[in-house]
Automatic annotation (TrEMBL):
Annotated source species: Actinomadura alba
Residue stretches making up the DUF5931 domain: 1-174
Domain Histidine kinase/HSP90-like ATPase: 278-371
Listed name of the protein: Sensor histidine kinase
Any one Gene Ontology molecular-function term assigned to this protein's record: kinase activity
Keywords: Kinase, Membrane, Transferase, Transmembrane, Transmembrane helix, Two-component regulatory system
Amino acid sequence: MGFEVPLWRTAAVFRVAALAYAAVLVTANFAHYRHPLGGWIVLAVMAAWTACAVYAYADSGRRGWPLLVTDLSVAAGCLLATAWVDAPDRIAGGSPTLPTVWVAAAVLTWAVSGGKGRGAVAALVISVAGLGVHKLAGSAPTQSTLNGIVLVFLAGVIVGHGARLAVDAEARLARAIELEAATRERERLARRIHDSVLQVLALVQRRGSEFGGPAAELGRLAGEQESALRALIGSHGGPADSTGEADLRVLLTAHASMTVTVATPASSVPLPVRTAREIEAAVLAALDNVRRHCGEGARAWVLLERDDDGVTVSVRDDGPGMSADRLTTAEADGRLGVAQSIRGRIRDLGGAVSVTSVPGEGTEIEMRVPAGVG
């Protein structure tokens, strides 16, 4: 049962209780009406519509515009009927309208169905109808009428706001349950694979390195497959979710290999999909630079860090390093790997890139992207 269901049930209970209250007032005052029979007719219409509305609103598939508009129209019509049924002097004296608080049920259903904005619209319609009663009776609105208008508006806005909060909370709870289930499944899968396939691949890698020759190549391939399989386990269910976010940790871990070590936080690092993909592309460009300029056997380390101000990704290698003016020279010669593929992407995200390199001691590229970038 969703959080919204109790709100619809509460509105139905209010409608029935308000009908009972209106029946008591009509019974007590019908002798003073200008058209007593009209009072009973309006009460009968209210009773019939209450039964129809309680039944119709019980099914979420029927809570569309036709039912909502009909509900509000019946409420406004019963309210306006007061000007014909009751005596003008009684209306001017502040006597209660025929439906009294029963008309607020329509405002509540509008608020529950669409939030505070829709609740305010319904309250406005009922308020205009209430003022119309005095207009038709030729009298000025009384203080009780104005008080009723204020209360109807407050009910529509507050109930509507609470209903939207309940729906949003239900969606977040469902997402949390989904993520928890996915995490448990991923952990179960990881345990089973770790106890079998990963251990075999690790054994092949270790023995291949010991034997050398063709076995060494087999060991290297086994090691790469082990890294790829670990990345697959980490990304089980896909990096992107229904909220339009992607886990940067999963995206980067997928690129770990025998020569690339990826270190990430223990918890997820959710970012807007575009931001996460651009950061991933910049990291891949940095790793491509390592392969092209440092050789296939060069090692690289990718470190992902997160804090309240944003995320930082650094890519470090054990290559020969470079001189301080090498990047400037490369950009002047039209080689824009770092300038465009890395700096350009991060700059477009509002971030910054710093490159630290010492000849003979490798190179480190640090990419910093502030929080809230979408």
